[in-house]
Write a structure and sequence with these properties.
Blueprint lengths: L4 H25 L1 E9 L4 H18 L8 E9 L5 H13 L5 E4 L4 H14 L3 E3 L7 H7 L3 E3 L4 H14 L4 E7 L7 H12 L3 E8 L8 H10 L8 E6 L2 H13 L8 E4 L1 H4 L7 H5 L5 E5 L6 H17 L10 H20 L7 H9 L2 E3 L4 E5 L2 E2 L5 E7 L2 E9 L3 E3 L1 E5 L2 E5 L32 E6 L9 E4 L6 E4 L1 H13 L7 E6 L3 H10 L4 E7 L2 H4 L2 E3 L7 E10 L14 H23 L9 H13 L13 H30 L3 E3 L4 H7 L3 E3 L5 H7 L6 E3 L5 H8 L4 E5 H10 L4 E9 L3 E6 L3 H15 L2 H9 L24 H38 L7 H13 L12 H4 L18 H7 L7 H12 L1
Parallel strand pairs: 1-2, 1-3, 3-4, 4-5, 6-7, 6-8, 8-9, 9-10, 19-22, 19-23, 27-28, 27-29
Antiparallel strand pairs: 10-14, 11-12, 12-13, 14-15, 15-16, 17-18, 20-21, 23-31, 24-31, 25-26, 25-29, 25-30
Helix pairs in contact: 2-12, 2-13, 3-4, 6-7, 8-9, 13-14, 15-25, 15-26, 18-19, 18-20, 18-27, 20-27, 27-28
């Protein structure tokens, strides 16, 4: 080989090596993973799903971040409309022949999903489904461990439905759902329980057979729907249904009038999510219905990119479709392929044949997809969904707001930390923008409203004990019935208020059975309502609807009275309470001491021995209670105190006289039977209305045995007077009527046993009960109810001067403490002024005497001053007798202690000055004082 040919040889060797390397890399790169997809390629949903799967696979295969050199390949298979078993074999074929690692199924029924899930369990192939299981996620995961549900729990959707019902205060609903062999009652049971928590209940369940099993769908569905006409509720919840079944359902319902005024329809997400793909004819058939749709964000860049790809492919492959935008089913299937692709990437260099590991990778997904956040718990989506509430109007639908278990209802959504949250969440929906069926402008009542051809049938008690409440008479001439009484008049007033919004055709029908039997007739559906004096009981509220009570209710014991006119030794003390007597005595004693103190100095009638002074002061003060005193008062301060005291005495004596007179003249009605314990001990016979619940209450609750039925209110006095019964048990409204007519003979004894009140009755869930309750409240507030009571239950003339309680209350200190305070304060102020005046005058007189006569240069102590005040207060007039003045005193050597002797008498300072002024007229006194000095 020449040297020139050597480079050519090297070139060919390198080229061959490069070729082998490329072939090897290509072999690695071309490793494919098969995916199976069983969808309805002829339906709108199937077309969207196919387009979305193709886009997801293409995006993954061309993604530069795919470093595992693995490609995805999809094998599409069409579902069989005629046989579910055929889909089963199709899935088996995909696993055995195509070796698929995952199967995406687009079936819309749980029956088909469960069959394919069994294959996934046996073959250990992940099965991705978009149907919400009727079982709990835990049970589904246990039974089908390889089933991956791209849906969340149905509990959120059920709560959303119940919240809508509660927002509009609908009380009864009818649930409609399409049945299949794999469904169970768990979802319906959860809905029933949830509605009960919102104050509503399921009146009826309409189960439609699976559409594929019907030979004549229109006729069979029509026969089912016609049965709903016999039900009262007009709120329909379509819990689950295929589009084909729903089409016939709405068509037949509209033809027979179930989608007219006052009707409401709610479509669950299983049906509402499908309505993007139906034609406008179907949408127009559900005019005014509300729908619950799964919400997804449309403003994100990823969605807009996907939307552009989707519309381009969808329009090219399905040019006959008018609507080319993707729906929730396309988004969910796209996210499912994305979750599978991420799981494949997560395997790294590991073999994709490890199906268990692949399934676990899928279930550990955690990313935000086009349909929302994707993460799994127990094989189902864990992130709670956000629902969009829509209203079907015209050929399309409009959004009303959003609902989520976290924020309730909201009109606006915002994004926070990647999570959609509601703004200004609320528990109720706004109804101002809703277009209801029949172009109704208000919220539908959701109930069959009475008409002239089908009026409201109202039961009226035909056999009553107290006819002032309800009375049914038959007119002999015309054989017509006449209804009267307090309850009848009240119902007529209610109708006047209801007529402002709508008319209420009705017919009265008397019922001559007992009250419990009458209530049972409403439960059975014979009567739509009861107008009468029906007591609200807890047990009855479970089966019927009560209005707002128009009268209080409770059970009382009425017994004959005995008049107690016996004179009691201490009756004179009863007009005042003990505290009142103590306060009165304290004020009078205090006034007595003040009067004595201020009069003792200047009034000779208050002088003398101590016992005489005390007697005079007491006599003066307490005699003011009965007559004017004879003692004269000299001090102005005393006069002020006495005037206020006399006013206090006047008020007290007037009040005492009135109270004592009332106690002595008004008869005190005392019950002949004190309490129910005496009835039990003696096993005495009692009477009650046997047609009411009272008889059972006395036996079961109060444990009384001897009970006599009293059928008429006029029989109670006869039975009580004859002694056949010792007590009568009457409800409070009847007791008030009875005592108004027989107030002088009977009183209430023992406690009251409270109940819910008297009210009208309607069938459970009837919206008329709410309207009538509002009308009763209006009549209560405007005084109409009081006027009716005064008209029917006027007080007997014989009861005007009788105190039913038999007791006049004693006067308490609380009514007079202000007057006591004024009297005490006046006495205290006058006393202080008097003492001040006394001290000031005494010090002035005493200071003048000592300064001018005895020792002008000597300071006196406080004790000396006080002693001087006391000496001044104890004497009538401050005088000094100088008949025995010693020489020492005259010489200014001090006053002898004998000056305190009774032999010394004070004279006025003026007189003393005259004595010691050295004038001739007092020379004799000077001589005497000189002689005394000599002594």
């Amino acid at each position: 080989m020449s040297f020139k040919s050597f480079p050519m040889l090297i070139f060919f060797i390198l080229k061959a090596f490069l070729f082998i390397s490329l072939v090897t890399v290509k072999a690695v790169t071309n490793e494919t993973i098969e995916i199976g997809a069983i969808i309805d390629l002829n339906s709108r949903i199937g077309k969207e799903q196919k387009t979305a799967i193709a886009i997801a696979v293409e995006n993954y295969n061309h993604d530069r971040r795919n470093h595992n050199h693995k490609l995805l390949t999809v094998h599409f298979r069409n579902t069989s409309k005629d046989s579910t078993i055929q889909d089963f074999f199709t899935a088996e074929e995909l696993v055995e022949q195509n070796h698929v690692k995952m199967i995406v199924i687009g079936m819309q029924t749980w029956e088909e999903t469960a069959l394919i899930a069994d294959i996934g369990k046996r073959r250990q192939v992940p099965i991705i489904s978009f149907v919400t299981a009727s079982y709990t996620p835990e049970l589904v995961q246990l039974k089908w461990p390889f089933l991956v549900q791209m849906t969340a729990s149905s509990l959120d959707q059920i709560n959303c439905t119940a919240s809508i019902v509660s927002s509009y205060q609908w009380r009864k609903v009818i649930v409609i759902y399409e049945d299949d062999m794999y469904s169970d009652s768990s979802m319906l049971a959860v809905l029933t329980e949830t509605l009960r928590g919102h104050g509503a209940e399921v009146e009826h369940q309409l189960i439609l057979p699976q559409f594929s099993s019907l030979s004549d769908p229109r006729e069979i569905i029509r026969r089912k729907v016609v049965k709903l006409l016999r039900k009262q509720s007009r709120v329909f919840i379509v819990l689950s249904s295929s589009v084909s079944t729903a089409y016939h359902l709405f068509k037949e319902a509209k033809e027979i009038g179930l989608m007219g005024r006052d009707s409401a329809w709610i479509l669950a997400d299983s049906l509402a999510d499908l309505l993007d793909s139906v034609d406008t004819t179907f949408i127009s058939s559900i005019q005014g219905a509300l729908g619950i749709k799964n919400h997804y964000a449309e403003a994100t860049k990823s969605f807009q990119d996907f939307k552009g790809q989707f519309q381009k492919i969808f329009r090219s492959e399905y040019p006959m479709e008018d609507y080319s935008e993707p729906g929730i089913h396309a988004l969910k299937v796209y996210d499912s392929i994305t979750a599978f692709a991420k799981a494949v990437n997560g395997l790294g260099t590991k073999s994709s044949n490890d199906s268990v590991l692949l399934k676990n990778r899928i279930l550990s997904s955690n990313f935000t997809g086009l349909s929302g956040h994707v993460s799994f718990v127990n094989g189902a989506l864990s992130h709670p969904p956000t629902f969009r509430i829509v209203n079907f109007d015209g050929n399309r639908y409009k959004g009303l707001g959003f609902w989520s278990s976290k924020f309730g209802f909201s009109e606006i959504l915002e994004s926070e930390n990647g999570e959609r949250i509601g703004v200004n969440g609320s528990r109720t929906m706004k109804s101002s923008v809703v277009e209801w069926p029949g172009e109704l402008k208000r919220v539908p009542r959701g109930w069959t409203m009475p008409t002239d051809s089908k009026p409201l049938i109202i039961g009226v008690p035909g056999r009553t004990s107290f006819e002032k409440f309800v009375k049914v008479e038959t007119v002999t001439e015309t054989n017509e019935r006449k209804y009267s009484g307090f309850c009848i008049d009240l119902f007529k007033e209610v109708l006047k208020i209801l007529e402002q919004n709508y008319t209420l055709p009705y017919e009265f029908e008397p019922f001559n059975g007992s009250y419990p039997d009458l209530v049972q007739q409403v439960i059975n559906g014979k009567y739509d309502a009861i107008v009468g004096d029906i007591t609200i009981l807890a047990e009855r509220t479970k089966y019927v609807e009560f209005t707002q009570p128009f009268a209080e209710s409770g059970l009382t014991m009425v017994v004959p009275v005995k008049f107690d006119r016996s004179e009691k030794a201490w009756m004179f003390l009863k007009p005042f309470t003990g505290n009142m007597w103590i306060a009165t005595g304290a004020v009078l004693v205090y006034t007595m001491l003040v009067v004595w103190f201020m009069e003792h100095h200047s009034n000779p009638e208050f002088r003398g021995r101590w016992k005489d002074q005390f007697g005079t002061a007491m006599w003066f003060t307490f005699s003011s209670l009965f007559f004017s005193h004879r003692e004269k008062i000299k001090s102005n301060y005393t006069k002020t105190v006495v005037i206020v005291c006399l006013f206090l005495v006047f008020v007290l004596t007037s009040s005492y006289t009135a109270s004592l007179t009332s106690m002595l003249t008004v008869p005190r009605l005392e019950p002949s039977v004190k309490d129910i314990n005496w009835i039990k001990r003696t096993n005495a016979t009692v009477g009650c209305d046997g047609d009411s619940f009272v008889k059972d209450y006395l036996r079961q609750v109060l444990k009384l045995q001897n009970i006599k039925n009293i059928s008429n209110q006029d029989d109670y006095p006869k039975e009580l007077e004859s002694g056949n019964i010792k007590a009568a048990f009457l409800e409070i409204p009847y007791q008030k009527v009875f005592l108004r007519e027989h107030c002088n003979q009977y009183v209430v004894a023992g406690p009251n046993y409270r109940f819910g009140g008297l009210a009208f009755v309607f069938q459970k869930g009837s919206p008329l009960a709410r309207d009538v309750s509002e009308a009763i409240l209006t009549l209560t507030q405007d005084g109409t109810l009081n006027r009716l009571e005064e008209h029917w239950f006027a007080l007997s003339r014989n009861c005007d001067n009788v105190d039913p309680a038999g007791e006049t209350e004693s006067l308490t200190l609380g009514s007079f403490w202000g007057l006591y305070l004024v009297s005490g304060a006046t006495s205290t102020v006058c006393l202080l002024f008097y003492v001040y005046h006394l001290v000031r005058k005494s010090w002035q007189l005493s200071g003048s005497f000592h300064g001018n006569i005895v020792h002008p240069s000597v300071d006196r102590s406080v004790w000396t001053k006080t002693a001087g005040v006391i000496r001044y207060y104890q004497n009538d007039k401050p005088t000094v007798s100088l008949r025995r003045v010693t020489s020492a005193r005259a010489a200014g050597l001090g006053v002898d202690q004998r000056g305190d002797s009774p032999m010394w008498h004070l004279v006025s300072p003026t007189d003393a000055a005259q004595i010691f002024d050295g004038s001739s007229q007092h020379s004799q006194l000077a001589i005497e004082m000189g002689n005394a000095r000599l002594e």
